[in-house]
From TrEMBL, chains A, B:
Keywords for the protein's UniProt record, in alphabetical order: Activator, Cytoplasm, DNA-binding, Nucleus, Phosphoprotein, SH2 domain, Transcription, Transcription regulation
Location relative to the cell: Cytoplasm; Nucleus
Keyword Iron-sulfur in record: no
Protein name: Signal transducer and activator of transcription
Gene Ontology biological-process entries: signal transduction
Organism: Cyclopterus lumpus (Lumpsucker)
Superkingdom per UniProt: Eukaryota
Any Gene Ontology CC annotation: cytoplasm
Molecular function terms, GO-annotated: DNA binding; DNA-binding transcription factor activity
Annotated ranges, domain SH2: 254-344
UniProt record similarity statement: Belongs to the transcription factor STAT family.
Protein's UniProt keywords contain Transferase: no
Main location: cytoplasm
Length: 416, 416
DNA sequence: ACAGTTTCCCGTAAATGC
DNA sequence: TGCATTTACGGGAAACTG
């Protein structure tokens, strides 16, 4: 029998997409302990079907009965595994939608999957039943962020086993609860959760400036339903896209702790200012819904004033064709004299760029030029090349230099 | 009733992917003319099912009967349209594969879809039958290039209506036939076919150097099955990926005729050499299986010798995040003195770059810097900026210039 | 083991329906 | 009509299978 490639989104077990295989192993079933003995003693039919329906109805496709045996019930667990189950919406005319909660969006609709068992023991038929924790059913993966938010909020705030009306009046959470959940979203899928500093930045996004966020209340709407001020997306959608970005494109850098990520611009300025020019840090975009990452570095202008500079955030699109480590290592800007230089020298606080990112760069992947070579020699130091060019120009047209001696350019810049 | 978004790959009508909807409207049916009268006079059941099977068997899913009426049979056509048909492979145990031609790969397997009609006319039942041209059934879109090659070769070389054994001994084609088909692959999906020059380049790839390709024979293996010399892919796979590249990423430029595309390196050198430096042309990558495009330009080195330069081909990946017109307009290289300059000035033969590509560039899409601005002023001409940098350096460390006066660099370069 | 083939399913785009 | 939701299917990758 075919094993599904990835039976449901593995880190988000209580969200089911129609048409995509899932197994009941990914649910936390209620285990009626007192019935364990009977189940394990006899063969039984274990038959799943969908129970508590809300506005939508679903049918379970796939093998929906199974004969349990002792081997499958190892370590005393009641669960029998059904693989290759899929859900399909039942579209009976238009009468299906007897929705008592039309206000709920689909990702707030909670469903229970009930599994029934008939046990025959010494001629006696016993009906057993167990059900999943509430699940959210989606039809397109683009609904996953909101669906998962529902699962998080539910499990953060209730111990009920079947409160499918939870989102008709969703309770508020405290910042402490939310912070733990947010950090867990990182620590459960990467090697690193969120630091106090990162969490504080996030708290400020949700609650505004405040001395101490502990105990502050956060509504479901604030977390997931309302757009952030001046933005076209909610806090959670923004954050979830960043989580996705981290997992798919910059996991290694995140695991190393090289990505400060969440930091306000004020604090960024405060910590970078005292640092030498070329010090930089990596930060997530605050304006991009899709998740973006950028870097900010310290620079001194000609007058010696310290400035912060940053690049437009890199999107997933761009990271598809180049790794972020390569981007950092190769990033160059034109200075005031049209010379290419790298403004990134030390990863904050003081890690040399090469030391941090060198090992994540591709080893100068031998390019395969279709013809000819590279005309620029890159061995001479910049300054020498510069002089060489000047001399070439002078050789071609010596009078230019004399003309320039009179220009304001030289007048301004020449010493003495 | 739902209309399919795109019922089958629209330009490649005789290839069917399992699980993807198709309609019989995309096939050329045999129309038994003498029966037209009967059909049109009466309602009839039009019932499709799959007929001639080879190693694989397929079932047709979807509504497979239909009552014909006069309205549907407009302009005297026999065809009734069945939408939402899909094919699914029939997996009966392992006995299904009674393959008489195990040597054929799946994209060489030809299938006929037969439609049956029962006509009741004045108490008489008449059985009618019509079938599609041979179709190729694939299970993944990655099989499309080879599948379509089969359709092309078949229709190029035979007028048979049901020669499903065609590929057990595929006939050879002449270059003239192949050339017409290849050009048609472009002209049917873009506004421009292939020129004689482009076709000649392709002929050379298939047949090697030759004075006159007319009448030369090309085998099916050469066209589609064997890898090209030194390459890991066949001629057709290479070309089809280029067609795909053109359609998805550079259609407008192709339609304008700006893309020479297929040109040998020898000929490229020959036509570019007499042109002034900065003249360039656009050419498809010969080494990339996935389809790539590059440009070659004329350059004069310091000694005044004319050179050809080209950039590594751009792939679909890269064109996803930047348009090719933008790449051309923004392309800069470092010259010998570490200064950024654009080596692309005139599109061959002599179209100013801006004139050709300016209108296809995004209008300097106002970037949204997360912080700070751009520190480099871009208004001074290169040479002045160069001098400015020199002077800055001298101001910081005047002794450097004196040291350099003694170095071999100056010794070599200085006049007199 | 391996290559040809199919399955799985995300993610974009389009269609649907309330 | 607009927006929430579902459907369609290309494309990458994993799984299957002779």
């Amino acid at each position: 029998e075919r094993q599904p490639c990835m039976p449901m989104h593995p880190d988000r077990p209580l969200v089911i997409k129609t048409g995509v295989q899932f197994t009941n192993k990914h649910f936390d079933f209620q285990k009626p302990e007192h019935l364990l003995y009977v189940i394990l003693k006899k063969e039984s039919h274990f038959m799943p079907f969908l129970d508590f329906l809300r506005s939508r109805k679903f049918n379970i496709l796939g093998t929906n009965t199974k004969v349990m045996n002792m081997e499958e019930s190892n370590n005393g667990s009641l669960s029998a595994e059904f693989k290759h189950l899929t859900l399909r919406e039942q579209r009976c005319g238009n009468g299906g939608r007897t929705n008592s909660d039309a206000s709920l969006i689909v990702t707030e609709e909670l469903h229970l999957i009930t599994f029934e068992t008939e046990v025959y023991h010494q001629g006696l038929k016993i009906d057993l039943e167990t059900h999943s924790l509430p699940v959210v059913v989606i039809s397109n993966i683009c609904q996953m962020p909101n669906a998962w938010a529902s699962i998080l909020w539910y499990n953060m705030l209730t111990n009920h086993q079947k409160n499918v009306n939870f989102f008709t009046k969703p309770p508020v959470g405290t910042w402490d609860q939310v912070a733990e959940v947010l950090s867990w979203q990182f620590s459960s899928t990467t090697k690193r959760g969120l630091t106090i500093e990162q969490l504080t930045t996030l708290a400020e996004k949700l609650l505004g400036p405040c001395v101490n966020y502990s105990g502050c209340q956060i509504t479901w709407a604030k977390f997931c339903k309302e757009n952030m001020a001046g933005k076209g997306f909610s806090f959670w959608v923004w954050l979830d896209n960043i989580i996705d970005l981290v997992k798919k494109y910059i996991l290694a850098l995140w695991n190393e702790g090289y990505i400060m990520g969440f930091i306000s611009k004020e604090r960024e300025r405060a910590i970078l200012s005292p640092k030498p020019p070329g010090t930089f840090l990596l930060r997530f975009s605050e304006s991009s819904k899709e998740g973006g990452i950028t870097f900010t570095w310290v620079e001194k202008d000609i007058s010696g004033k310290t400035q912060m500079q940053s690049v437009e955030p890199y999107t997933k699109q761009q990271l598809n064709s180049m790794s972020f480590a390569d981007i950092i290592m190769g990033y160059k800007i034109m200075d005031a004299t049209n010379i290419l230089v790298s403004p990134l020298v030390y990863l904050y606080p003081d890690i040399p760029k090469d030391e941090a990112f060198g090992k994540y760069c591709r080893p100068e992947a031998a390019p395969e030029p279709e013809m000819g070579g590279d005309s620029s020699s890159k061995s001479l130091p910049c300054f020498l090349r510069l002089l060489s060019e000047i001399l070439t120009c002078l050789r071609r047209c010596p009078s230019v230099f004399m003309d320039l001696m009179d220009s304001e350019l030289l007048g301004n810049g020449f010493p003495g």
